[in-house]
Amino acid sequence: MSDTTTAPELAAPRAPRNRRSTRTNYELYGWLFMRASGVLLLVLIFGHLYMNLMVGDGINAIDFAFVGGKWSSPLWQTWDLLMLWLAMIHGTNGVRTIINDYAERSGTRVVLKSALYLAFTITVVLGTLVIFTFDPCPVGADPELLASICFP
Prior knowledge:
The chain is mainly alpha-helical. It has four helices and no strands. It starts with about 25 loop residues before the first helix and ends in a 19-residue tail after the last helix.
């Protein structure tokens, strides 16, 4: 009497239904960007803090004239612009990830991401405009209201 049992047939795993035919590495690139921008932001932020707080008179020197003098240099305009853009992209990518993880309904995700991208756009555009159009010595202004750097 031979008792032979055969193993049950297992069904092959199915592919997910919503899989796109072409795969992108968007999430991988986002993950790599977060690491690279985080390191670069550390350098930019600590350089910013060192120059503003440790060099010269330190925190006592920070006023309108200090910012006006600093932003008259293309180096500091570029430094602050890079810091603004990287911080905003880094933060927006992080909040986007949180929205993807915790917003359960797709409608909620769309509303939250739309608000996030709108806030990002407004902040980056206004920040960029301020950095490049800032003039501490506007022509025709009352001399009593101008900073000390406006008078040679």
